[in-house]
Amino acid sequence: MNFIVFVYIAIGITLAFLAMLLYMRSVASRQQHVCPVCGERQTVELMDAKRCSQCGAPFAND
Ligand SMILES: [Zn+2]
Fold this sequence. Notes:
By secondary structure, the chain is mainly alpha-helical. Helices cover 47% and strands 10% of the residues. It contains 1 helix and 2 strands. It has one helix spanning 3-31, and strands at residues 32-34, 41-43. A two-stranded antiparallel sheet has the order 1-2. Strand 1 (32-34) and strand 2 form a beta hairpin. It is rod-shaped, with a radius of gyration of 19 Å. It starts with a helix and ends in a 19-residue tail after the last strand. The chain binds zinc ion (ZN). Zinc ion (ZN) binds next to loops.
């Protein structure tokens, strides 16, 4: 295997890892809701849950 090929693979893996980290951070921040009623912080799937699982209050949509 060429050294150049190894360098390309290393760069590709590094970029993919960084992209995955950024993606996971953005998704994690997007999915976190804080209940306006009880203050419970919740992780919500995309458009799945729109109510607090603790007190049942609907999340405010901005
Ligand atoms: Zn709540």
